[in-house]
Amino acid sequence: MATKKKNTATKKKAPAKKAGKRAAATVAETPAASSLIPAQLQEFLKQTAVPKGFVASKQLALSDLRNRVTQLNVRPTVPIEQLVASANRIKPAPTVTVKIARPGSR
């Protein structure tokens, strides 16, 4: 009974290609850094959506959140009970209402 010898010669791998170094982007090259942000937007961005110790006055019920998650086809990665507790700590954004004058009235 004859046995075959395995080919013990190994192939040499080609060296991996090295990526060229990229130049770091500077502030002058980035157009977004030179744009002006309106003061109202700056104030909004400075405020936090979840202030320490804040609890929403209108609490979201567990069943309501469960229905919304189902309707939106969202799969939360945390338990729904933990999600509803976090959602109830979010401070709602202030709504600005502007009174528009009707034509012909003073």
Question: What does it look like?
Answer:
By secondary structure, the chain is mainly α. It has a domain at 50-92. It has helices at residues 31-34, 39-46, 62-71, 80-87.
Features:
4 helices, 106 residues, mainly alpha
What is the gist of this entry?
The protein has helices at 31-34, 39-46, 62-71, 80-87. With 106 residues, the protein is an all-alpha fold.
Q: Give the N-terminus to C-terminus distance in angstroms.
A: 112 Å
Mean pLDDT over the residues = 77
Strand element count = 0
Radius of gyration from the CA trace?
A: 30 Å
Instruction: Give the structural class.
Output: mainly alpha
Number of helices: 4
Strand content: under 5%
What order do the helices and strands follow?
HHHH
Shape label = elongated
Strand count, sense and closure of the main sheet?
Answer: none
Helix content: 25-40%
Low-confidence stretches: none
